[in-house]
Each structure stands twice: as C-alpha cells, then as structure tokens.
Amino acid sequence: MTTKPEERHAQLELCIPYVFGRLNPGNRKQFEAHLSSGCEQCIRELSGLYEATALLPLLLRQEAPPSGLRQRILSRASSRKTEPQRSERPSAQREGPVTPTIRPERPWYRYAAAVMGVLLVIALAIFVYELAGTAANQEKKITELQSKLQLNDQALAVLGARKLEYVPLAGVEPGSVFHGKILWDSSSWNAVLQITGLPAAADGKCYQLWMLKEKKYIALTQFDMDNTQAGILKTLTIPEGEKGAIEGFTVTLEPKSGSAEPSGSIFLRGAK
C-alpha cells in the first residue's frame, strides 16, 4: 500500500517520541512498518536524532576517587613507635614476708582490639583532615554538575520540539575528522550545538560559531575545547528570522575577546 504525502508528514512527527520510547505498542508497530516501507525523510530524521542523543553522556565526566589513602594510613600506623613503659618505683619493703601479687592474664584478643581501635582512630583523623581539605573542590564539582544538568534539560527540551531543524557541520580539509551539527526548534529558535574532534585551542584563542544569513556572518557563540573532552554540547538561541534566510553555519578560530566577523582559520562549515 502506497503512503500518501500527508501521511508521511504525520508519521514524521512520531520520530521524536519513537526515539525516546514514548509510543504505545500499536503506534510503534505501525511506525516501524512505515520505516520498513523505505521513507527516506523519516529515516533521515531518526538518524539525526540518534546522533544527537548519543552525545548527551558527554555532559558527565567520570571522577576518580581519592587514591593512596589506604597506603598513607598503613604507613603512618607502622611508623608510630610504641612508647616505652615506665617502670614502677619499688615501694619500701615492709618487715615480714611479702606476698607476691598475681595479675590475671589478658586474653590476646583484647590487645588486638586495642591495636585496631588505634588504627581506626588514625584512619578517621586522616579521612576528616582530607575531607576538610577538599571541601572547596567538592563544592566546585557540585556547581559544575548542576550546570551540566541544567544544560542537559535545555538540550532535551530542544530535541523534544515538534519541528526540529538541523544542519550537519563537516571539516573543510580533505579527510578531516572534525564534524558536528546544529539543531534548533524553529518555533522558539532555541538551539543545540554539538561538536566532536576539534583540538584544544591555543592560548588566547577560542572557537566561534557564525550564522550565514543574507551573505553576512552573524556571531552566535564562543566555546573552548581541551584535551580531556571528546566533544562539546552547548545550547544557544538563534536570532529570529525567516528559515529561508539562513544559508549555513561556520566555525572558526578567533581571539578570546571575540571578532565582529570571521578572521581566523575555518574548521567546520555546513549549509542548509
């Protein structure tokens, strides 16, 4: 059975709920049958959505726990010398026979428990000391995570738009590994920029995204890359205007102070 053009447009709106698993079994089966019919428009839309959602884990960076704590505890415990016991001064002997005092022997496990108690106190003291020393770092990490969660929510809001536009970005040099895309909600003009493969910028430099509109470049946003990042995910707002007026996007390397128009090397380019 041939699908009518208006039916294909209606099926296109099911791409986003399909990606996020929001279709009921009946609609999902119907939509998958539609994909099997070879709808290139829906397949292309799904491909773009899957690539965008796959980059969301890049927002979170794995943090390694403090290392060497156990070794430092053992080293400090082993270097702690046992204090010599003071010998009791013998008391003046009384006349007459002296009855020896018999002291009951302490079981070995009491001594072991005492040693373990000392080690636990030392370990706790070291832990509290290091925890106090890293309180500022922990607070900074919490702030960074909150910012990333906010960015994640903003990106999901764009990806869940009913009308999602996107332009792929590719490296200008032959064989370039630089690539990315920009996606935006055509109703709110909120956008998501995704870039992978770019090297870290030199000191005093940063990357800048431009929009080409009516043969003029409009600066949209700046971003940095470092050696620990596989890519970046950034949200922004595109200046409002007719969709047909946007001709494409470009990424260049510019001074950190910014540029009024592209002046550095072009790394990425994409046209509508």
Write the layout of secondary structure elements.
Layout: H1 5-12, H2 15-19, H3 25-36, H4 40-53, H5 69-79, H6 108-133, H7 135-159, E1 164-171, E2 179-185, E3 190-196, E4 205-213, E5 216-223, E6 231-237, E7 246-255, E8 266-271
Helix pairs in contact: 5-6
Please supply descriptive tags for the structure shown above.
272 residues, Arc Repressor Mutant, subunit A, Immunoglobulin-like, 3 domains, 8-stranded antiparallel β-sheet, 37% helix, extended
Q: Can I get a quick summary?
A:
The chain has 272 residues and is α+β, with helices and mostly antiparallel strands. The protein folds into three domains: 1-54, Orthogonal Bundle (Arc Repressor Mutant, subunit A), CATH 1.10.10.1320; 109-157; 160-272, Immunoglobulin-like (Sandwich), CATH 2.60.40. The protein has helices at 5-12, 15-19, 25-36, 40-53, 69-79, 108-133, 135-159, and strands at residues 164-171, 179-185, 190-196, 205-213, 216-223, 231-237, 246-255, 266-271.
Task: Characterise the protein shown here.
By secondary structure, the chain is α+β, with helices and mostly antiparallel strands. The chain has 7 helices and 8 strands, in the order αααααααββββββββ. It has 3 domains: 1-54, Anti-sigma factor, zinc-finger domain (Arc Repressor Mutant, subunit A, Orthogonal Bundle); 109-157; 160-272, Immunoglobulin-like, CATH 2.60.40. A hairpin with a 4-residue loop joins strand 2 and strand 3 (190-196). Helix 5 (69-79) packs across helix 6. It is extended, with a radius of gyration of 33 Å.
